[in-house]
């Protein structure tokens, strides 16, 4: 299991250099499936005496001394992921376990691999949530004898947002190209842009069944209520909307082209 979503470019925690490796102290949030994890793939900050702040990436066994899982995943949605916080207290990481060193706070080419592979998988969950909510709404409404005219308007809008999410997800999958892709900055940033658009579309899709079904959708006994809560988490995966805008805008200025030119 990994903690990349909560770490991103800066990472968190601190590493102290000791003989043969490092001692890591950190709290890693959004560690999905932490209660049943075997290997934690994570990162932390280290102040290199010559190179300044760096982020080091490494694996840690869940049996390591100083590693514990906090019982704190009590959230609005996505409760079944078990994304408890993993706490590291002076956990030893040997020197030869360091898989990557990169400057803290800077975009690194490793993200072009991580994003292109992981994001289509992650966002497919939310597209599935949107599809399920839309189907529930249609099934419930088809059981009614009469449908008010504004309901059909809502369903049409729901369909368009769902189509947008589905098409963009397919485009993300095509960029991954069955893992036959070049790990370029263009691909990494293209995935980030599509992730934002898919997340926004999925949230809009699930809002529409709430409107169309009406007050009954507010009850916990109705599955739409849970789907509405779950889909909100889509925004928190790298990157949230406004940080993505900023990163993409800076990339466009530095590289002097638009994505649709490629």
Mean pLDDT: 94
Biggest sheet statistics:
4 strands, antiparallel
CATH class of the largest domain: Mainly Alpha
Q: Unreliable stretches, pLDDT < 50, 5 or more residues?
A: none
Enter the CATH topology name of the largest domain.
Answer: Butyryl-CoA Dehydrogenase, subunit A, domain 3
Helix/strand structural class: alpha+beta
- Report the total helices: 6
Structure commentary:
Helix content is 45%, strand content 19%. The chain has 262 residues and is α+β, with helices and mostly antiparallel strands. It has two domains: 4-103, Butyryl-CoA Dehydrogenase, subunit A, domain 2, CATH 2.40.110; 110-261, Butyryl-CoA Dehydrogenase, subunit A, domain 3 (Up-down Bundle). Strand 3 and strand 4 (52-61) form a beta hairpin. Helix 2 packs antiparallel against helix 5 (223-231), helix 3 packs antiparallel against helix 4 (185-213) and helix 4 (185-213) packs antiparallel against helix 6 (241-255). The longest helix is centred in the middle third of the chain and has 33 residues, at 110-142. It is globular and about 75 Å long. The chain starts with a helix and ends in a 7-residue tail after the last helix.
Would you kindly provide a brief summary of this structure?
With 262 residues, this protein is an alpha+beta fold. 45% of the residues lie in helices and 19% in strands. It has 2 domains: 4-103, Butyryl-CoA Dehydrogenase, subunit A, domain 2 (Beta Barrel); 110-261, Butyryl-CoA Dehydrogenase, subunit A, domain 3 (Up-down Bundle).
SSE inventory with pairings:
Layout: H1 4-7, E1 14-18, E2 21-28, E3 39-48, E4 52-61, E5 67-69, E6 86-94, E7 100-103, H2 110-142, H3 149-176, H4 185-213, H5 223-231, H6 241-255
Helix pairs in contact: 2-3, 2-4, 2-5, 3-4, 4-5, 4-6
């Amino acid at each position: 299991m990994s903690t990349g979503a909560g770490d991103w470019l800066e990472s968190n925690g601190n590493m102290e250099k000791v003989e043969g490796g490092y001692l890591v102290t950190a709290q890693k949030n959004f560690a999905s499936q932490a209660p049943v994890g075997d290997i934690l793939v994570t990162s932390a900050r280290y102040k290199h005496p010559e190179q300044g702040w760096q982020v080091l990436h490494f694996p840690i066994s869940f049996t390591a001394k100083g590693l514990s899982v906090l019982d704190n995943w009590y959230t609005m949605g996505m409760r079944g992921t078990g994304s408890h916080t993993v706490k590291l207290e002076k956990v030893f990481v040997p020197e030869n376990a360091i898989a990557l060193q990169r400057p803290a706070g800077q975009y690194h080419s490793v993200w072009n691999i991580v994003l292109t592979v992981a994001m289509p998988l992650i966002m497919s969950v939310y597209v599935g949530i949107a599809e399920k909510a839309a189907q529930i709404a249609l099934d419930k409404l088809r059981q009614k004898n009469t449908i008010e005219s504004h309901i059909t308007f809502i369903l049409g809008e729901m369909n368009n947002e769902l189509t947008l999410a589905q098409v963009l997800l397919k485009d993300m999958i095509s960029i991954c190209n069955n893992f036959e892709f070049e790990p370029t900055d263009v691909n990494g940033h293209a995935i980030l842009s599509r992730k934002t658009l898919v997340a926004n579309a999925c949230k809009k899709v699930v809002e529409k069944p709430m409107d169309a079904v009406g007050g009954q959708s507010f009850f916990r006994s109705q599955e739409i209520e849970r789907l509405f809560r779950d889909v909100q988490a889509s925004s928190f995966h790298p990157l949230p909307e406004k940080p993505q805008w900023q990163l993409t805008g800076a990339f466009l200025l530095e590289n002097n082209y638009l994505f649709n030119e490629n």
